[in-house]
Design brief:
The structure is a homodimer. The first copy, chain A, is of the alpha/beta class. Helices cover about 45% and strands about 15% of the residues of chain A. The longest helix of chain A is centred in the N-terminal third of the chain and has 16 residues, at about 75-90. Chain A binds a DNA duplex (30 and 30 nucleotides) through α2 and α4.
DNA sequence: ATTACAAGTGTAAGCGCTTACATCGACCTA
DNA sequence: TAGGTCGATGTAAGCGCTTACACTTGTAAT
């Protein structure tokens, strides 16, 4: 090799005076090579600045040590944070992360799944479980292990996540305990988004148990933006009777709602209570601080990585790993006003 | 091939009654094959469910259609957002994104650069320009095109970003115009972080022009967290004379400072002015809303993708693409108190 | 008719690596 | 000492693809 071409296994082998097989073993199974030889080889590796070629390695070993993640968007703190810890954990296992985003669209997700498959990923991380059967089937056919995260999924498949339904129900019970009876909800768009749907269902179920019929619980679905949260909150406040507590599908919606409340001169929580979900940074920064559900996204990412790696290595894995959530009581939930607006 | 092994080019070639070369051409340069042949081949591809093998392709063609990005962390809205649009743009060009994080450590960045190189990426996106020459040298040797983003860099290399120095200076002038003379700064850790360093220098330079000597401008470096921002702000407020305006290296630090201010019963901006940098969501949500510098992270990501693709294709590119920033005047900057604490 | 050329296709040589199998000693056992 | 075992290393056959080059044929120019 000269100064300008990448050194190859062969170059290293020649430099160290061994065969390419030995160099390969030094790199992949160091304990199968005796120490002095190994050192000689490693020195040569160092000296030449050798790094293995990905294509060659992938071709010969039929593995890429690459893992794909397809998330709705990184532009949402919860996924960004989860992805960050996922990537770090992966990196500890010597895997690299291929990232694609679906923008919450199942069709786009499907495309990206195919891209990932074409890339020869060893495994794929997906978000949630709501997707066309054909996407799942595709992955199965290809024999690519995959994992749903951020939710616990249905009958089959592997999942690591939390129980969105139960968490939402728990928070709702807390709202009910404060004495609220006129609840309302601003949920995420639930179509093909099981997290949003589960949270909505959780709220409804808990309310129902308290004798509040579904048709007595107004629900607006909104995209996860401040603006849409604010708009939905406005609509809700125009209702008569006016809800005394608004449960939001995530913190972004909740903060949007709070901004609108201020605009409408409604005090939180004196005039109306608001709750969120996720406990992103935002939640601790608004005034009053947001009562919400804490979701350990970092732990999620890590657990997902560990689980996916096991799946790839065909080690035994639990079908579902549940990450516990916790309600964070802060300042936006209080008792309903004594004399609520009719 | 049978039901269980992936079809190869050879299988397709046999099925279509052509050579592998022709199949390969059908896939990579369709116009070099006559239509009837092409159709026959495509039919066979379809029938067998053939998808090219990534390893083989990478090995033979010496390119992967993969681009790497090494950022400090996704757990910072600005990078997450930029990365999101970078990825989307890349995807439009048929490239996939490999993500790694450095945690602001040049050593870790170097490692990841090597991983990326080993992965055979066609190009790499890096953040900023502050890194050991050896890292740059490595990339050069390997002939891997790379691009620094979020800043405009120095003598050589390609950059797409904004002028952190000028933006910080502009904001500082605005603070000075309000009548402030006792400035202070909470900057990011500037070691090997040119963005942080440039912002700091920008503030200092503008202050100096207004006759404020460097030693009259206290600066504390802090990690980009609420806690560190709060702590630094506490220290600054204990100074005598107390600063009347605190310029922060980013919005996270600024919000941390605002929280501390509330704790200390200092009103913003009546008792003390605070400014941020980046204009992340947080900035519009705190009370009062944060006066800060808007950085178009989405445009950044997109521009970076376009530029890197050109670099990869060896098309002509400008050495530096500057993305304009804008000062967003909101509620945390006001005139200094009439009777400032000595 | 001959020649030159171009377009369509085939042939076959790798790309850099892993790994099954072969080889070679060193060491043990009877 | 012969035979057996085992651990360390070497040999070499691919992995699936791209592509330089060769070949064949049809067409246009002479």
């Amino acid at each position: 090799m000269n100064e300008f071409t990448k050194p190859t296994l062969d170059d290293v082998a020649r430099a160290a005076g061994v065969s390419t097989a030995t160099v390969s073993r030094c790199l992949n199974a160091p304990d199968r090579v005796i120490a002095p030889t190994r050192e000689r080889v490693m020195l040569a590796v160092e000296a030449l600045g050798y790094t293995p070629d990905f294509g060659g390695r992938a071709l010969a070993s039929r593995r890429t040590n690459t893992v794909g993640a397809i998330i709705p968007t990184m532009d949402n703190a919860i996924f960004a944070r989860g992805l960050q810890s996922f990537q770090e954990a992966l990196s500890r296992f010597g895997k690299t992360l291929l990232v694609a985003s679906s923008g919450y669209s199942p069709a786009r997700e499907r495309e990206q799944i195919e891209v990932m498959a074409g890339r020869g990923v060893d495994g794929v991380l997906l978000i949630g479980s709501a997707r066309p059967e054909s996407s799942v089937e595709f992955l199965r056919r290809r024999g690519i292990p995959f994992l749903g995260a951020w939710n616990l999924g249905g009958e089959d498949g592997y999942f690591v996540g939390f129980d969105n339904h139960a968490a939402a129900a728990g928070l709702t019970r807390m709202v009910l305990d404060q004495g609220h009876r006129r609840l309302a909800m601003i949920g995420g768009i639930s179509h093909m988004n099981d997290r949003a749907a589960d949270r909505m269902e959780g709220v409804r179920a808990a309310a129902e148990l308290a004798g509040i019929r579904r048709d007595q619980l107004p629900v607006i679905e909104a995209a996860y933006t401040f603006e849409d949260g604010a708009r939905a909150f406005g609509e809700l406040m125009a209702l008569s009777p006016r809800p005394t507590a608004v449960l939001c599908g995530n913190d972004v919606l909740a903060v949007g709602a709070m901004q609108k409340a201020r605009e409408l001169d409604l005090r939180v929580p004196e005039d109306v209570s608001i709750t969120g979900f996720d406990d992103i940074d935002l939640a601790g920064v608004v005034d009053p601080k947001l009562t919400t559900v804490r979701v350990p996204h970092l732990r999620m990412g890590e657990a997902a990585a560990e689980m996916l790696i096991k799946l790839i290595n065909k080690e035994p894995v639990e079908r579902r790993v549940e990450i516990p959530t916790a309600i964070v009581e802060r300042g936006t939930l209080g008792p309903p006003p004594a004399d609520p607006v009719a």
